[in-house]
From TrEMBL:
It comes from the Eukaryota. Residues 80-128 form the SRCR domain. This is Transmembrane serine protease 4a. GO terms for molecular function: serine-type endopeptidase activity. GO terms for biological process: proteolysis. Residues 190-420 form the Peptidase S1 domain.
Length: 427
């Protein structure tokens, strides 16, 4: 009898303990969640000065004036660079003929005589490509001026290996294929659909702040992302707030890379959206794999005709004034003739040489808000090339208002100079 009573009491006690523990746990969880949201809220509106232990409005970080003691709020900020020198190495035309610049003689194709694998590797590295599997071929594809064997000045610094100037007797030039970019497996899973898989567009990244998708971007090497300059408006200039999420089809907010540099094109004009391009450097390179791969930069003078098929990808709005898409989308759109896009009934003089248009005059298919900074790519000889960067448009998918993209071909000199200057590019 008494033993039974004691047993019952014990059970009741145990129950009470379990309930109390449960309530405490729930309470702690709620507290943690609340703390997380409060922190997110504060962090999205304020910058914390560690040394002087105070908060300042986020707009005051990276505004050019020191608001924290020691100017802590002006240290980890984006920068902007104008490039007025000519980057001395380029690949030109769809044949990828290597050309070298010297102030005296301008651009000249490089003669194939004495060209070695070592030259190929250094030249590819110089152009921002990363590793192995680079192919240097001799090509009897002379166009324009006769090639002269030239010294690859800037290549010399890197490998202590140069070619001497002399006359090119064979007449064949070097065609380079720096092949660690733009290749993906077969893309036969989607027919006429709009859902996309990251494995097919492995350069696509999501640029985020406070767990929010802000802009798209494209990996052009394991450490560099090309995006749009207009993604970095006033509250978005501080580096530590950015994360670059790669390798995901469904937008994720965890596991993004940190950023140690954001460089805007020094000529960027927010009023006209001219030179709307920026480079972001990841604090450490991504591991290249099936869902993480750089896209190729286009050669100079790619010579793409109007109506060439392009693909634009991103997590942007599914309709004007809509919402960001949870899963990656793609759309095939044709390149639009410059004259047509600059006609008075379309965009007139708003379209500069640094812009290209793609889409349909009838509307219906287009990039939209949130796609900005993302890639417009073109498939050529089984490689994808970054032809444009999503920049602007009037509304989305409206009639006679196609998408306008930053013209990557016009920005190659800037891109190569920035990546070369910031040495660690090829690690
Ligand atoms: N500026 C927009 C953004 O910030 C992208 C605009 C693209 N618009 C268009 N109609 N193609 O996301």
């Amino acid at each position: 009898m008494t033993a039974q009573k004691a047993e019952k009491e014990k059970a009741a006690k145990r129950k009470r303990v379990v309930i109390t523990v449960f309530i405490v746990l729930v309470f702690v969880c709620l507290l943690a969640i609340a703390a997380y949201f409060i922190k997110e809220l504060i962090v999205s509106k304020y910058f914390f000065c560690k040394r002087s232990v105070k908060f300042i409005p986020i707009d005051q970080a990276c505004d050019g004036t020191d608001d924290c003691a020691g100017g802590e709020d002006e240290i980890t900020c984006l920068s902007s660079f104008m490039v007025n020198t000519t980057f001395p190495v380029r690949l030109t035309s769809a044949r990828q003929v290597l050309q070298v610049y010297s102030p005296g003689s301008g651009w000249r194709s490089v003669c194939g005589e004495g060209w070695t694998q070592q030259h190929t590797e250094t030249a590819c590295k110089q152009l921002g490509y990363t590793y192995e599997a680079t192919i240097g071929q001799l090509c009897d594809c002379l166009s324009g001026h006769f090639p002269t064997r030239v010294t690859l000045n800037t290549v010399c610094d890197e490998s202590k290996f140069c070619l001497n100037s002399s006359v090119c007797t064979s007449g064949s030039v070097v065609s380079l294929s720096c092949s660690d970019c733009g290749e993906v497996g077969s893309q036969d899973r989607i027919v006429g659909g709009t859902d996309a898989f990251i494995e097919d567009w492995p350069w696509q990244v999501s640029l985020q702040q406070g767990g929010q998708h802000v802009c798209g971007g494209a990996l052009v090497s394991p450490r560099w992302v090309v995006t749009a300059a207009h993604c970095f408006s006033s509250s978005k200039k501080e580096l530590s707030r950015w994360r670059v999420v790669s390798g995901t089809t469904y937008i994720a907010t965890l596991g993004g890379s940190y950023v140690d540099r954001i460089i805007l094109n020094g000529n960027y004009d927010p009023a006209q959206n001219d030179y709307d391009i920026a480079l972001m450097r990841l604090s450490s390179p991504i591991n290249v794999g099936v869902s993480h791969k750089p896209v190729c930069l286009p050669p100079k003078a790619f010579g793409l005709p109007a109506e060439s098929t392009m693909v634009v990808t991103g997590w942007g709005y599914l309709e004007e004034n809509g919402k960001v898409s949870p899963s990656l989308q793609k759309a095939s759109i044709p390149l639009i003739d410059r004259a047509k896009c600059s006609s008075p009934t379309v965009y007139g003089s708003a379209v500069t040489q640094r812009m290209i248009c793609a889409g349909y005059m009838a509307g219906r298919v287009d990039a939209c808000q949130g796609d900005s900074g993302g890639p417009l790519v073109h498939l050529n000889s089984s490689r994808w090339y970054l032809v444009g960067v999503v920049s602007w448009g009037v509304g989305c998918a409206r009639e006679r208002s196609p998408g306008v993209y930053c013209n990557v071909e016009e920005m190659l000199n800037w891109i190569h100079t920035i990546i070369e200057k910031t040495h660690t590019a090829y690690k």
